[in-house]
Amino acid sequence: MCRNRRWLIWAVFSLFAVCDALAAESICYGTTSNGRLAHGVKLPAEGKNFTAYGTAPAALGRTYVHSTVRDIIVETYERLERELPSKVFKYAETGFAQGGKFSPHKTHRNGLSVDFMVPVLDRNGKSVHLPTNAFNKYGYAIEFNAQGRYEDYRIDYEALAAHIVALHQVAKRHDVQIWRVIFDPKLAPKLYATRYGAYIKQHIAIPTKNSWVRHDEHYHVDFQLSCKTFDH
After folding, report:
1. CA 118 to CA 101: how far, in whole Å?
2. 108: left (phi over 0), alpha (psi -120 to 50) or beta
3. pLDDT of 10-54, one tens digit each?
4. Contact assessment for residue 104 and residue 62, using Cβ atoms and an 8 Å cutoff
5. How far apart are CA 187 and CA 88, in angstroms?
6. Disulfide engineering: 179 pairs with which of 67, 156, 222, 228, CB 3.0-4.6 Å?
7. How many domains does the chain have?
8. What range does the domain containing 91 cover?
9. CB–CB of 36/230 below 8 Å?
10. Does residue 230 fall inside a structural domain?
């Protein structure tokens, strides 16, 4: 009888712990460049049409975001799976579970910044994942030329534009705004030449000045949520 009672008590407390964990929503503090995160959640390692940029950095805790941002990203991939079933996508750096300084990035500190590797086509025109590994700094050392080409790969501007538009529209359904998308200004005109170009020009801010690092192999997305004051 005592053993059964102890087991019942343990089960009840375990159930409450699970419920508390599931109920806890992330809380962002401060800004993307000066803030932190509470109750950060990890992005799924992979899905039917997407994958993370590397198992090692994910294991090191570099793929955490605000829970609402996680929901937007996953829902966007699900939408693209229906709309563009032949396309595959890859996300990159996001941030730590508790936010804070995230070297070498200047932002990614409060769970609202996400890097995505550019979708690419191989020499046969097939949508494939850009190779990311320790030897090319998980993709960040890759350099695309002015024509958007790297070795046998070329940027899939249609898929890239479709992803940005889907992120924006899904975010709106979650009452979230996209503050900006950072992408190489010299390559951005090819985004505007896609069938999604007019929408992007009207709804999404892409800075025309160069960032402190070139954003050609990846594009940086900052989401905008209401965050609490960050006290040092």
Report:
1. 25
2. left
3. 443 344 334 434 447 999 999 999 999 999 999 999 999 999 999
4. no
5. 20
6. 222
7. 1
8. 2-224
9. yes
10. no
